[in-house]
Fold these 2 entries.
Entry 1:
Amino acid sequence: MDSRIKLAVFGAGYWGTKLSREYAAIENSTGEVKLSYVVDTSVGALDQVKQELSNPIYPSTDATFSCDYSEVLEDSELDAVHIALPNQLHYPVARAAMDSGKHVLLEKPISTTSREAFKLTRLAEEKGLVFLVGHIFRFNNALRTVKQTLREGRMGRIFYANLDWATFMEVLPKERDIIFDLAPHPIDVLNFLLDEWPENVDAVGDSYVQKEDNSEEMAFVHLEYPDQILASIYLSWIHHGLKERSVKLVCEKGTITCDALRQTVKLDYDHNINEIPVFPFDGIDPVTPNKMGSAETSRKSGANNTIRDMQYHFLERIASRGPQINGGMIGAQTVVVLENITAAMRAGRKLRVQQLVSV
Ligand SMILES: NC(=O)c1ccc[n+]([C@@H]2O[C@H](COP(=O)([O-])OP(=O)(O)OC[C@H]3O[C@@H](n4cnc5c(N)ncnc54)[C@H](O)[C@@H]3O)[C@@H](O)[C@H]2O)c1
């Protein structure tokens, strides 16, 4: 009997293609999963993935390509789906998948409304299904290193955080919302590092290139967390230069700077205030004094393939349940924050975050 987890990837666009490739790689290296289907309404997108998966590095992959997700969900042998479809399809498709008894990994944002997001978490619970959200930065070794550093307490209290999520898109997204599309990651990163949700939010944004109302191409988001922690997130699709996914945490005893894309972590701390021992990790650079007379330590944190590690986690949870790193409830709470940020931006004033909207 074939004991592998049978999985389908819904969506063969930019993200779904990467997901299919990584599942095929896991299938070929470990045999823990079978990529049974790749689904997309675009035949061209499916052909592209088909061609990629025909590469001899994936000898055992023989996925079926389909344009109809409903038909695929009828396959009783199918165990799980990873959904990377346009945001507005997340709720109906995840719901249909759960109604068919499939475990679901749903890309962010898990829904365009928190009401629907909580419905999905409840449905998964009722049916005893694994339901995860594609909050991939929880699997990023550099950010895990930052979390570990904070846990060790050597940087003291966190004062404030600054996150830059900026990129330059040649073709600006149509019918996509920069808050719902780009902010889920930095909001989730803050929850991952602080173990808290914001109490108050405020935001401004604008459209400079398309010049359309309610179609912001950039935004500045401000968040207030418990214990007087402030956070600022800069989002942009029109930012020339290198793509940025960076996190800076200014703490009582020093500053942590993390480049989550290139997976580096830098600690700056002042010897006059506190002597912080060098991290006992492999691969650490020698401590060199910087201009300010403080010590600067830079280390490569063992960059990892975050997509693959998230997929392994999904497969492990299906096989043996247990604690979830990126459970659906985190995705639903993130949508609550996104809604509040959007409302604050439209209202032009700071808003108190309404937690846990009832279903
Ligand atoms: N976790 C991450 O870091 C990350 C990164 C990028 C995208 N995403 C998420 O992945 C999702 C997809 O994003 P993308 O950039 O790949 O978008 P995309 O537009 O490139 O791909 C979407 C695909 O869905 C297909 N599609 C549309 N309607 C369909 C239907 N009814 N049935 C089957 N296929 C259908 C389209 O033909 C398209 O190929 C989004 O939710 C996005 O937020 C997550």
Entry 2:
Amino acid sequence: MNELWHVYLSAWPTVWARETTRYVVAATLMATILTLFWRAGLARRKLQPRDPVHGQWRREFLASLRTAFIFSLLGAVVAVGDHQGWITIYKDFRQAGPLYLVLSLALMLVVHDTYFYWAHRTRHHRRLFALFHRTHHLSRTPTPWAAYAFAIPEAVVHGAFVPLFLLVVPMHGLGLLAFGIVQILRNVMGHAGTEVHPAAFGPGRWLGWNNTTTHHDLHHEAGRYNYGLYFRWWDKLMGTEHPDYPRKFEAIVLPASGTTAPAGADRLLARALAYVMAGGLLLSADPVHAQEGPVGRWVTPGAAAVVEILPCTGTAGLCGTVRWLWDGMDDKGRPRLDIQNADASQRARPLVGLSILSGLTRAANGGWEGRIYNPEDGQTYRAILRRPTADTLTIEGCVLFICQKQVWRSAGSLAAALQ
Ligand SMILES: [Zn+2]
Ligand SMILES: [Zn+2]
């Protein structure tokens, strides 16, 4: 139990930073694009004559920060599920390949759209609306800052999607990252208040199966229509699409007769969207996976032992515990004990469960430095750990059974080989 809390608490700060940064960066980019391209053509794409009310963006911003916090509380559960093996976030491409990556991402978006449509339509039920959804609809003329402007119960419903989906479908870390970027970009675009999609997104055109800003803006304006998130499928199928949607989109993106500016505006918008995508990709990059430390389960040479490295209990730094030994039992079938320990009172401790790495902290040279206990001779040594690749950990010093530099392999790579 204690261990699960440690996994949860050590994952949470990164998840929180990621959720918050993702929102702030995407909403800022969208707001910047609106400002930069306003005179170049966006002004005539404004969807409602009324303006956002004074101070609205501040309310949307604060509610969105609260939502990012709730998302992080739910998102850190994913780290626990991954650690426990309840869900699979695989790290090695060889396990499934690029086709699976693309298909699993597409599936995740389609399932998310379905989850969103039905949960959203349910929130509009008169008995549920006040508790779940009124906060979001306080914005009649939404701004990009409204992307996460939800009441707490609604934020919980949204935030539960990723953990629930991962219970069923294994995803690569990159697929999850791409999902997070697509989700927030489509979200801020939907709330831009000004049509930012190129004309190709128009109903009947090649990207017409997608939602647009006009589509979701009509939902904020009229309420009873357009519950979908990314796609129009469910609204079309269930007859909940605003009857005026196709006409309104065409009217807003097509150049008015006698003007020349908007043809260029479309090209400018396409370019701006490309910048947003690139910016989102750069800034939403996952810092945990980019520079993962030695946290994880590791297999020592010859598969002699499995050692798990986690944040220490009660003290700073990382600690490592023996989780499994190839030769864990003696001839009589009893667990092997720490019989070489210099301290006689410690000799009855079983080797499995023994903490052998302690106080690992980041060293100036980019590695991790701490102490390692060698049950072979009962001595404790200084150890330097490095993680040159996602799959390998090098340990310099005296380790488990040999005194030298060793390469430990991630337990995930061994598990993959055994399948
Ligand atoms: Zn709604
Ligand atoms: Zn909305």
